[in-house]
Amino acid sequence: MQLPDGIIAVVKQDCPTCVLVDPVLGEIESRGLPVTVYVQDEPAFPSVSRVVDDRSLEHSFRLDIETVPTVIRVADGREQGRAVGWAREEWQALTGLADIGAALPAARPGCGSKSVEPGIAERLALRYGDVNLPARRLDVPPLEDDIEYCFERGWSDGLPVVPPTEERVYRMLQGTTRAADEVLGLAPPNHAECTVAKVAINAVMAGCKPEYLPVVLAAVEAAFDPAFCLHGLLATTWFSGPMVIVNGPVRGAIGMNWAGNVLGQGNRANLSIGRALQLVVRNVGGGRPREADQSTFGTPGKLGFCFAEDEATPWTTLAEDRGVARERSAVTVFSADGPVGVADQKSRTPEPLIDSLAGTLRAINHYKLANAADVVIVVGPEHGRVFDDAGWSKAEVAAALHAATRIDGQDLGMGTDKNAVAVRPAAGALPKFREGGIHLVRAGGDAGMFSAIIPGWLMKGSLGTDPVTREVSS
Amino acid sequence: MTTTLLDPTGELAPVERRPIPKPATLDGLTVGLLDISKARGDVFLDRLDALLSERGMRVRRYKKPTFTRPAPIPLIQQIAGEVDVVVEGLAD
Fold it and tell me: Assuming Cys at both sites, which of A136, A433, B35, B57 could form a disulfide with A437, CB separation 3.0 to 4.6 Å?
């Protein structure tokens, strides 16, 4: 942008400091320096002769003004320097006029520029900035409700979505440094290219704040890893959907919940991050219930299932176990059905508590089934304390649970007919869960001697899904 | 004012919604005849009713209270729940 030589000032009448410096601008002009004043509110306010009406805020945006007054020295059409607010010595140095503003106090802070007011900055960036939002534009017909329009187009999971306007999506994209057109992978089942922009659009619809976006992006990338088998998880008749567990400093930074009601409602970050992932599957991938999603029952968690781990315990965190340092943030995706509660208000030592948990674990999927789905066990604080007080590490608890859940070969086989008997293997204990198939995390409210078992998809490992961890990057 | 939204989908489908596929035959389907209360619409629909019934089709008749407004929601729901295809007369 070619700027007028001399001094540029950006002001608004609503700012007392701008009113204070108005005579100084006149003084500069009377000393022979050309002065151009861009005014954000009242064009009649400045007393200099060259006033530019900037109520559209285009100039303020292009000049990157955050505070008024801002004075800029221009030579040969280019900025040579600027001063923000009123600071007599700075203004004197900038203008080369050693005695201006002698009657004013030495300094006064400025006021916020109208161009950076909430909601305005996004609009200006979209209108005048170099913004790339790679997505088709759809106009909601006049008089039609935009939320109803989203329902009509099939973009909703059954609950209202936040309509993804350009302003909202632009604001969402400010949550990441990644380019809007970066491709994260192919979204199943339609193998549609999924860009950062598409994730941002769906994150808006899910109700996310911009600062959640890096977590959503990491969750989407984790879910797209072939090891997670998102396509099969979507299509299966089984209950499961994707579940996201968040570790590291980002949990606190964006206000996630790992305490009371951790698996329930009420926390915006937990709920909307999980929902955003599922809306990506639905909208970008085209994975919809009773179409590609052939689940017999589904589970309430398929609306979105995400929570944070309580890291203030003696145990290593889930992300640490999976190779991510504690000071870094990460997400881990699992397949997940609904949680199964385990109550044990009696045990004060690890062994009987292991027995309680193991009894419920043996019944997962089917009580006569070995090699069952992987499970995540969310150990509540009061159960966790029993293990902590006895000095049991997470690995020791997992080993004890594996040992306590083995099933005798003679007890195997669904049904009791002769055929089932015939396929029973020889006597001997078989593992209920594959090695590494019991995942322990810590979360939950202070009161209640409970833990939650969250079983996943029956198909696991190379035949189905494995959990996948991704670091969260800005 | 028109709101502009960004498409959240994979953009594999066209923007315009497609009508549901037309059935190749009416055999075994129930046909709804919707009278929108325009003058002489009933004459046309009575004749259709006779022709379809002669061919052994199941026919059900419906009537909007007035052609000036969209059909009441309960009527739309009733029609959606009872028939496979609908014929309605739109002009005088």
Answer: A433
